[in-house]
Write a structure and sequence with these properties.
The chain has four helices and eight strands; from the N terminus they run ααααββββββββ. The chain is α+β, with helices and mostly antiparallel strands and 179 residues long. A three-stranded antiparallel sheet has the order 1-2-7, with no helix packed on it. Strands 5-4-8 form a three-stranded antiparallel sheet, with no helix packed on it. 9% of the residues are buried. The mean pLDDT is 88.
Length: 179
């Protein structure tokens, strides 16, 4: 019979498959694909950790900012609230309704960190909230641009509090956070 092909034995099909994957062209394509995917993964990691990388190596910041421009991201100071400790606070009445609130923040991280927001809560004798106010970093008097690594920063607020005589202030709480 003309035109009838004999079935190909299984060991021949297996040898052809192995020969395909071991050919120079397929190996070259797979190598290029692995390198491209590794480069994309590295670029994704750099963009994701851009803030930490810029804090770790400040001379990389311009390069990271240029890489962020087409992606719509920006390089910002690192935010690690767990590394910021309130060392001390004091709320002292000065004159009439005027108070001085002094705060010392310590950055325990080995890199400079973003300045957090501050929440000041005034309480009565039963620990009920009388008043609460959030101070964003841009509202702080003489706020630093960054909290220096392993250093403390003092901040003094001058407040005017209009509290009624029916609910006297007995205490306060201070909390730092990133909005």
């Amino acid at each position: 019979e003309l035109g009838a092909e004999e079935p190909v034995p299984g060991f021949v099909r297996q040898a052809r498959r192995q020969a395909f994957w071991q050919s120079m062209g397929v190996r070259a394509i797979l190598t290029v694909l692995v390198l491209v995917l590794a480069a994309l993964l590295a670029a994704q990691w750099v963009i994701h950790d851009r803030d930490r990388l810029a804090a770790w190596q400040p001379h990389w910041q311009p390069l990271l900012q240029r890489a962020c421009e087409p992606l719509g991201c920006k390089v910002a100071p690192v935010r690690r609230i767990d590394a910021i400790v309130i060392d001390s606070t004091s709320l002292v009445r000065r004159l009439g309704n005027f108070y001085a609130f002094d705060l010392v923040l310590k950055n325990t991280a080995p890199i400079a960190l973003a300045v957090p927001a501050l929440e000041l809560t005034l309480t009565d004798v039963g620990e009920s909230v009388i008043a609460r106010r959030v101070f964003l970093p841009q509202e702080w008097p003489d706020a630093p641009a960054l909290l220096p690594a392993q250093e403390s920063v003092s901040v003094s607020f001058r407040l005017s509090l209009a509290l009624g005589d029916d609910t006297p202030m007995a205490g306060y709480r201070a909390l730092v956070f990133y909005p």
